[in-house]
Amino acid sequence: MADAKKMLLKILRYDPEHDSAPHFVPYGVPWDDQTSFLDGLQYLKDNVCPDLSFRSSCRMAICGSCGVMINGVPKLACKTFLRHYPDGANVEPLANFPVERDLVVDLTHFLEYIQALKPYVIGNSRQPKDGPNMQTPEEMSRYHQFALCINCGLCYAACPQFGLNPAFYGPGAITLGHRYNLDSRDHGQADRMRNINSENGVWGCTLVGYCSEVCPKHVDPAAALQQCKVAGALDFASSVLHCKKNKEACHVD
Amino acid sequence: MQTITVDIAIVGAGGAGIRAAIEVAKNNPDFTVALISKVYPMRSHTVAAEGGSAAVRQETDSLELHFNDTVSGGDWLCDQDVVEYFVQQCPHEMIQLEQWGCPWSRKPDGSINVRNFGGMKVARTWFAADKTGFHILHTLFQTSLKYPQIRRLDEHFVLDILVDDGRVAGVVVLNMLEGELVQVRAGAVVFATGGAGRVYRYNTNASVVTGEGMGIAYRHGVALRDMEFVQYHPTGLPGSGILITEASRGEGGVLLNKDGYRYLQDYGLGPETPLGQPKPKFMELGPRDKVSQAFWHEWRAGRMEHSPQGDYSLLDIRHLGKEKILERLPMIRELAIEYMGIDPIDAPIPVRPTAHYTMGGIATDQQCESSIKGLFAAGECSSVGMHGANRLGSNSLAEILVFGALAGQGAAMRSKEGVKSNAAALDAQAKDVEKSFTGLLRQKGKEKWSVIRDEMGLAMEDGCGIYRSEELMQKTINKLAELQDRIKKVGIVDSSIVFNTDVLNLIEIGYGLDVAEGMAHSAMQRKESRGAHQRLDESCKARDDENFLKHSLAYYKKGSAPRIEYGPVNITKLPPAKRVYGAEGASQDKQNKEKGNG
Q: Interface pTM (ipTM) of the complex?
């Protein structure tokens, strides 16, 4: 990249100790056909502004660290390439999360929601000495796509509902809960549905579908949420039917 | 400074660290565990492992065969008692992961499928398409959420350990978001901090794989064992070093030079196997050290393709067909398209050997405990003695599970001893850590850590690459000593305490330099060729069991070169023999069998 051309990146900088508000700073970044936005940020950190803060790890789109807004769209910096932005680009921290510093946002809520929806096998007492569960490729295909979530948070940055209501469990966490609901080895659906079906669960989703559009791993969280709604509605219907059969035990207002 | 007290502190939340945490939590419901990581757990480098994890599965396989492959694959520098325990535990760990929800790839009847891997005589590599590390890490992370007594300290950077009377008593960590130090007191500490691949310039590793865990133990007098053995993975993308899994070859992919010739047949791995019929321990299913060495010879002979990002060979998987590629190798395809602009369904992938894995690490006993009582190590940061001079592909994911669990058990036992530490002494140590950290934050100078990092990385490739010589290693040693001086003159620009990665980069590279010196000096002193340590000097070209069938032990010496000592290798069942693959390997197997029967 020695004699390479430079591209203008405007990066939203913010140091809570010294700045009153975030502000854009322009930088020139040398690039070629292989230069990713992460490469560009690393170039700046190495050579121009060692005090620029951003997250990164694997640089191959599997660890989920480097989510940022590029021209207002949530993207992984490591698999977005400068060559697609010949006029330069604005780089900002992920939307809808509190900004800690430069491109680093606070993901605490997201992590808490993942935990709240119990993404682990429930109610299967099989032990290693019993050998593996059987699971056919067809059974696996029911949930497999939803198991590909890398927890990057792009879907939260895309979700207007999460922007309005930070208590909304959001696409990523609900998708993971749903992934276990669909797993033939799991028996925890009823347990999980209490939260998934709650006020801050799937019913907060307004079907915009932008989450699936920005998902870098094609997990399609919008589909997971719609399937959850169907499951939730069926749960409700069956509980009503159940009530009709057992009128004495039912307390419907 | 805030102080928290837990029963066990685990540093590193990749596969080994989380596996250790679960082991402690499930067996000791009244224990509290601090799971400390400089990144969110799912950003740990385990996530990038692709091909699979070894465990005997098929009726045609046996623990003995897995043992033999591992010991010969490690060129007999493995501790055989450790390998024996390892191969026994692997099936248990893979089944346990299955029951925790890992989506292992299946056969049509719903049973577990396995694939071939390099240096393994029978297919025994469990896989989840080509995202095995990703699924293992996420399964472990998600399962860990079941245990409320696991207290995660995400984005907390370990600065040092606390030691009282020869026994570990906790760690001092930096809360990266708050910029505050925290003293974590614990009855035992597990280091699961990963390898040090980033001391090389071109590598397959995530940017977090910087070696400070090894460096911290090393500065406290714990030996780093077998550090000269650094694995070059034969197939990384030119330039970025992004890993293209060995499973590509396990499934039948072939390596070609620029003339379209399968050159591995000329380097003790032949004869050529028919296209689409991979044969264990032949050709492309040779072990990584041999396959990378073959590349080096072909490259020197001018038979590789050229590019500005370095010369490369071609990995051809086209004959597997679209359906199989999409089913078994979807991520490889995605990576080749995204980062090289090449769809492997239609064209071969350019690849070259790239620094990948540190066989050595923090020396531990068979129970994963280091020479500091209560300080355990597991996974790539450790040297429990199982990989020897060359690790086989798919043995490291298995290792993090088997030894992560074992380290967790050992740490729980140590913690239960309930030894009380001298609180005043620990406070004083923590104060010293704070003082030196504050000093670094204010360090002034004209040097840049990024320049030191790059010069270190290139020096390691020049001197401690696939082939080494005394002259080249000496140059590297001199360069590293020079960088040790220059790093003291690195100026820190960032004046904020919030997420200050300027100073953290400096700390990582500082520890990385120590680890790199351990590697270079251990390499210099090993005057033979074995596994991943191959020398070009005339008297060092062959394996020398008489003088070097032993582990190297590098000891830190402040301000000067490390002291290199040696320790015994535990050989129990498989006496050293010639290490051969391809036709010669098959004929050795046959002879052994006849001997066994006769």
A: 0.97
